[in-house]
Specification:
Elements lengths: L15 H33 L4 H13 L6 H5 L6 H8 L11 H11 L18 E5 L3 H6 L1 H6 L2 H8 L5 E5 H7 L4 H6 L9 H5 L3 H6 L2
Antiparallel strand pairs: 1-2
Helix pairs in contact: 1-2
Length: 213
């Protein structure tokens, strides 16, 4: 029995479909803060002197171009509020960073379970290196989401990727074949070696995985 992924249905923020709602709420809040900041700057400039139009004009131009405000639009145009946000947004994907806790998880899995079943195929797994832990929604998909990198720290993205509902215990060959693909795409993709789709090739319990998505 698996202790990692008892339910593969992603009914939390882990669902790609729910990324939009999650980040839209955060982005709206951030944009409101930016507008308030801009208005405060305008009032400050006007307060100095209504004749100092260059000061106000410079502030307005800076706001239009991004200045020290970071929105997704600004980030896509390489305009960042500070170096920390720039590094957070531009960092390259490192698979190992999202799998650093896997050795410990697998050790606990082997220790606490007499029988381990593949979350995709329901077949029994061995307590050895052939048993892997897989991100149902791949860590690369989470990392490559622009809003995730801009509005979430590396630790927050890792927490999302390793949420227990986004982890599945599976055979290493399945994990390697699936790679960064979504479970749905991978199941229905043709396997070059067999000519059948991957669900058929690896014996995936399609009904279960459709039902629990």
């Amino acid at each position: 029995m698996s202790i990692i992924a008892t339910d593969i249905k992603l009914d939390t923020i882990l669902q790609n479909e729910e990324f939009k709602d999650l980040f839209q709420a955060q982005e709206t809040k951030i944009e409101k803060t930016e507008i308030d900041s801009f208005m405060s700057e305008c009032r400050r400039e006007i307060g100095k002197s209504i004749l100092q139009t260059f000061g106000l004009g410079m502030t307005y131009d800076q706001f239009k171009q991004g200045g020290n405000l970071t929105t997704l639009h600004n980030a896509n145009n390489c305009v960042f509020a500070n170096e920390e946000i720039k590094q957070q947004y531009t960092t390259k994907f490192d698979r190992k960073a999202y799998e650093k806790d896997f050795p410990k998880m697998r050790k606990e899995l082997f220790k606490n379970n007499k029988i381990i079943k593949d979350d995709y195929t329901r077949k029994h797994l061995k307590k050895d290196s052939r048993t892997h832990i897989d991100h149902v929604v791949s860590a690369k998909s989470i990392h490559d989401n622009d809003k995730a990198r801009l509005y979430m720290t590396a630790d927050q993205r890792n927490d999302m990727a390793t949420h227990h509902k986004n982890l599945a215990v599976t055979n290493g060959s399945v994990n390697q074949s699936k790679g960064a693909k979504s479970l749905e795409d991978w199941m229905h993709s043709s396997n070059k070696k067999t000519g059948y789709d991957n669900a058929t090739t690896y014996g995936v319990d399609v009904k279960k995985n459709h039902r629990n998505r």
